[in-house]
Amino acid sequence: MNRRYEKPIPYGWYAIDYSDSLKPGDVRPVNYFGRELVLFRTESGTASLLNAHCPHLGAHLGYGGIVKGEAISCPFHAWEFNGEGYCTSVPYANRIPPKVADKQCVVSYPVIERNQMIWAWYHPEGAAPLFEIDDVPELQSPEWTPLDTYEWRINTIIQETGENAADMAHFITVHGNPAMPQGGVDLDGPRRITEFDSRAHSIDAQGKVDLSGESHDAVHLRSESVGPGFTFQRFSRMFDVLMMGTVTPIDDQNVHLRFNFSVPRQQSENNGMLASGTVQEIVRQVEQDIPIWEHKVYLEDPALCDGDGPIAKYRKWFQQFYA
Ligand code: FES
Ligand SMILES: [Fe+2]
Q1: Is 131 within the bounds of a domain?
Q2: What is the pTM of this model?
Q3: Is 146 within the bounds of a domain?
Q4: Do 206 and 231 belong to one domain?
Q5: CB-ligand 1 contact for 168 (6 Å cutoff)
Q6: What is the domain range of residue 31?
Q7: What does the CA dihedral 303, 307, 308, 314 come to, rounded to 10 degrees?
């Protein structure tokens, strides 16, 4: 892994894990934001994320720490810390030492659970959340299938993976699309909405993608991003697919990308096959992008041409997330 990026980690809400994978009492070491972290769920069910190292003598709370009530107990000397990073017990001392008493002594991250995932707010200076992410109704509905998940760890930064959607010309060269997608982008604070009428590859009734250059206009795609780490996309018209894309900085050079798909349980057999063909096509396209992302450099002042799409507009929008 080479070091090619000189940008800070952008602030925002980032997916940490799937809600149903973390049961009450679970403790898990996690590496994001260039930091060692510990994720745990208290006995009452609250998910919490703290910096991993204990302020007593530095043990990692994620390796052997145990949940006790609403706190996590350190594996080394059993000091306890709650989800806000306050020390709640030093079991063998008469009093909690002033260095840690009545103050946040472990960095804690705001956590929410939404759309079946656990999200943490990251800001390099610890600022409180500056925006919210959406509840996606399909992801709370029993009419839609459980998440079908794909994930990748990639040597790149979020600004680069997001730029992909604004980069129209690469759809032809990298993805073999017969024509550039036609769409418009709307920017509103932390929100970015893109609508495409895609002349995508046709997908036959067996769900097989036809790369021969034949295309159809039957797919509408609306993609909404809120901040750098959360995107949801709705494919509609001939068939329905919902995709929740999450991207979480592992550090300032690497990201963890997850694509989560859901489709209506009641979709005709034919449309169901079109939907699963679309899922496979999206996954295939990311895998085509990855070698480009992992070896390219970021040019601050690129030589853009008139057919490139709204790359400059995208970059200006993204800039707001660098504190
Ligand atoms: S290092 Fe955590 S309690 Fe001592
Ligand atoms: Fe791409």
Answers
A1: no
A2: 0.93
A3: yes
A4: yes
A5: no
A6: 12-122
A7: 110
136-168: pLDDT as tens digits:
999 999 999 999 999 999 999 999 999 998 999
Ligand nearest to the CA of 64: 1
- The verdict on the CB of residue 109 being under 6 Å from ligand 1 is no
Q: Give nearest CA residue, ligand 1 atom 3.
A: 77
Q: What is the number of domains present in the chain?
A: 2
User: Ligand 1, atom 1: nearest CA belongs to which residue?
Assistant: 57
| pLDDT, tens only, 196-239 | 876 555 556 555 655 444 455 567 889 999 999 999 999 988 88
Confirm whether 266 is domain-assigned: yes
Distance from the alpha carbon of residue 95 to the mean position of ligand 1, in angstroms: 15
Which residues does residue 53 pair with via DSSP β-bridges, in sequence order?
Answer: 60
Tokens of 211: 């790369």
Full DSSP string of 125-184: T-PPP-S-----GGGG-TTBPPPEEEEEEESS-HHHHHHGGG--THHHHTT--SS--EEE
- What is the whole-number distance in angstroms between the Cα of residue 43 and the centre of ligand 1? 21
**Are residue 145 and residue 107 in the same domain, yes or no?**
no
Task: Pick from 79, 87, 88 the residue to mutate for probing ligand 1's pocket: most ligand atoms within 8 Å of its CB.
Answer: 79
| Residue 148 shares a structural domain with residue 279 | yes
